[in-house]
Target: RusA family crossover junction endodeoxyribonuclease
Amino acid sequence: MTIATILPRDGSSAPGVRPPVASGARPPFAGTAADSVNRDSTGAGVLADLPAPVTFTCPVPPSVNAMFKNTKHGRAKTQAYEDWRLMAAAAIRRQGVPKIKGHVVINMAFEIDLVRADADNRLKAMNDLLVDLGIIQDDSLIPAGLFSKLPPTNRSAHIQIWPVVANSDQTITATFHATHNGAGGAWIIEAPSHTYGDYNEHV
Model:
């Protein structure tokens, strides 16, 4: 199952591409004061494409209950947790996952038992590893997130990280699509958009 499909809301163009402007039509803000105000000295501005999401897969993280154990010296990582960190870190490095600065929204889907397993208590292990690897700067910079359960086909975790652009009126819309029995499903995220008054620009 695909955990996310990134498409423009009107379906008229590929991800990351603005809908085409009709021949002879004047693009929004072209040559106006708004255009010059919204652009910085480098030529970039709020009309520039929003960053694309970062996606990767790795082994499913352990639950919080399986992360630590009590020892005579205090709390310590379990062997299962240590092993997962090594395997997941290797998988992330193989996929060349880039580092992201600033705030992010994360969509996580775990291939786990749809009946007995909890998805929400696996978030901490994944977030902590992302910080330790420098993929994100800190888990306090995650203002929102999504998680879901998928059938345990390969025991994989599917991660999608969306950069949050400050001062851009960025909108991220997600729809949950449940499995037939309602025990699992996936969040489908639309391409983010900028909003300027009555005009929405999809990127």
User: Anything to note?
Assistant: Helices lie at 33-37, 79-94, 123-132. Residues 48-202 form a domain with the 60s Ribosomal Protein L30; Chain: A; fold (CATH 3.30.1330.70). The longest strand covers residues 104-111. Residues 65 and 110 are 17 Å apart (CA to CA).
